[in-house]
Amino acid sequence: MNCPNCGAPMIEGAKFCGSCGMQVGAQMNAPAPSADEPAQTPSGFVPQPQNESGDYQAPPPGSFNQTPGGASANQSTGQGIKLDTDGTGEGRGYSYEILHQPSYSLAVVQLQAEQSILAEAGAMVSMSANVELQSQMKGGLMGALKRAVGGESAFVSTFTARGGAGEVTLAPGGPGDIAAVEMSNQQFFVQSSSYLAGDANLVVDTKWGGAKTFFAGEGLFVLMVQGQGLLLVSSFGAIHRKTLQAGERYVVDTGHLVAWEGTTQYTLRKAAAGFFRSMVSGEGIVAEFTGPGELLIQTRNLAALAGLLKPFFPSQSSGGGSGWNINLGG
Description:
The protein has 330 residues and is mainly beta. It has a domain at 88-307: Mitochondrial biogenesis AIM24 (Double-stranded beta-helix, 4-Layer Sandwich), CATH 3.60.160. The protein is built from 5 helices and 20 strands. It has helices spanning 25-29, 140-149, 211-215, 275-280, 302-309, and strands at residues 88-91, 94-99, 106-111, 116-120, 124-127, 131-136, 156-161, 166-170, 178-190, 195-199, 203-208, 221-234, 239-244, 249-253, 257-261, 265-270, 285-290, 293-298, 315-316, 324-325. A hairpin with a 2-residue loop joins strand 1 and strand 2 (94-99). The longest helix is centred in the middle third of the chain and has 10 residues, at 140-149.
């Protein structure tokens, strides 16, 4: 079947169009309106513009999420972060489902024949036998070097279904959640450790985060993701969503950041006034964001967990020997 709004091909039984985002499941099952009754559209949806030939034409910036009264539903936050709350959706040539949320999430991607999805190296859990895996240095040698310095793998994995449909399952290295972000010609910044996978049409680049990210201990680079399509991000712990109004300021520990809108301004500073107070507070450097915009925050900090476990790890003897010094409590 095809989308009644933009004409894009859709999987049978799909509720949403992967190209324009229109909710079509209820509309296609509803009885046709009579001649005297005006056609109804889903609440909050505005038909997408089309050119003279009837093809879909991208709306101008700022026209997404318009309410019937003409006011933007996300007026204070731009387009906002569109998450699939039910953990299912579809894109161009694939559908996906997120299982076992929120502690041990697994992303199951169903690829149509000859369709592809990109993922971080090492993210694959399983796949159909007809799915072809290729690893390459995206962006060439310089791109690979930037990714390596930014804390990522120098290689990107591409999964392509050959000769028919195929399945790929993806998961992060640690326990936590996976969020499916449907990008609509937007720009997001993602912590390098939180990027899991994305639509093959998305542009993913490693950007210099400035000296402030170096002193924050979060690495020299962040990922800038832009375009239209599915973006899968992972977290350590659950994912908390925070919406900032215009001019609203909000502080987040740098170890808890997952992703944020590219339109959101931020600076890094000490958590408390004075160096000593910041150190004894246990917070160190924090990120202060200024709205409008939306943030995705992880509820746990991997570095903090490592600090809690450190006293229980065996330590090398300071006497110069090569053995281990383990305190058994005797």
